[in-house]
Design a protein that fits this description.
This protein has 331 residues and is an alpha/beta fold. It contains 11 helices and 10 strands.
Amino acid sequence: MNILGIETSCDETSVAIVRHNGAILSNLIYSQAKLHAQFGGVVPEVASRDHLKKLPLLAQQALHTAGVGWSELGAVAVTSGPGLIGPLLVGVSYAKGVSWGCDVPLLGVNHLAAHLFAHRLAYPQVEPPFLGLIASGGHTTLVQVAEWGSYRTVGSTRDDAAGEALDKFGRLVGLGYPAGPKIDELAARGNPRAVSLPRPLLETGLDMSFAGLKTAAVYWLRVHPHFDLADLCASYLEAVVDVLAEKSVRAARLLELERIVVVGGVAANRRLRDVLPERAGERALSTYFPPVDLCTDNAAMVAACGHHRFIAQGRGDPPTLRPDAGMRLPS
Ligand code: KG4
Ligand code: ZN
């Protein structure tokens, strides 16, 4: 069975063809980052219009790359939330058209659950139970995954997401949007102990908070107008990574889970990929990060997640499926 996956929840247009066994035949990602860079962040209306323009072309190209025809599709899976409502509407409407035109089931997928399926695509042999850390531009959530399809949110950020905290800080120091990858690069050349910054909520519970860190950086910059950017980036990133690592290890130990699975755009970060396995290893916990192109938003994870839903429930969604910008995982 070939599953067509569609992702348009934010500023990446992505279309993938994934086989029922998890083989990725194509996974094309078109980033709108350049389009939004001039505004310093994603402009929803601009994003919607660009998805509308690129999605049909990308779908043709994904089929062509995979060597699969429209008539060979078995299902269409699409992110139906959470995300920006306009961009979600574009993806869901297109998926409905494919479902009707090709007479295949329509599968609305939760974007956060889809991020977890990046792990399944990368490490199919490493099954749940595990603790999932979803760290992206819009979300930072700790999820207990008892089995595929069974999710319980055990902690999340109370304000900014980890990626958002990096992007906002990056904007402050003139790195443009999105700043995460640039901070990653600069931090590799800096001293993470150069600037002392807070680790909000570090000692308590499983919830996180990153807004205060950004404010602390604002105040620090007022007093230190001349600074070494690499050192500052390394110090700021270290605070984010410290919190993510500490909370993940704490959650895994509390829930008696032996594995930590890290997904979402921030999972691409090199410092996190160094620090978390080290801290987890000290507690005899193992960690898994998918390859970078499966960490950031992509449609292969959406297809894999939709396929699992279809197998578990034996049916798709009705054509009345609506996108839900505020969709959550169960708590
Ligand atoms: O998962 P994703 O592609 O989109 C959302 O669902 O939000 O995550 C995007 C976020 C952005 O905040 C971006 O700055 C961050 O992931 N990001 C990174 C890196 N690559 C992307 N953050 C730190 N280091 C990276 N290498
Ligand atoms: Zn995402």
